[in-house]
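Human: We require from you a standard protein entry with sequence in single-letter code and fold as tokens, and nothing else.

Assistant:
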Amino acid sequence: MIGVGGGPGDGTPADILPVQLGLAFPHLEEWRNAIYARIVLKVGDRRYWENWAGDVAKIAERHTTRIKALLDDPQSKLGKYLLDTPGF
């Protein structure tokens, strides 16, 4: 409990050093390979994620271009609304 008991050296459990216990994992390499294989099945491989990230970057760039075009167009109702909105 916090705030109860004395300081270091008074024989409380806080003076006892923790000990890291070892865990035995038989066939650890097989487990690791099975987990990696399952992750690839669920989420794809590295090339998939690299392509996905590139696609997201392209989409974000297109959105940015469209928004800038709307804001620059004096006939755009959305651009006028946003520019007239306080705090924008």
Residues 47-88 form one domain.
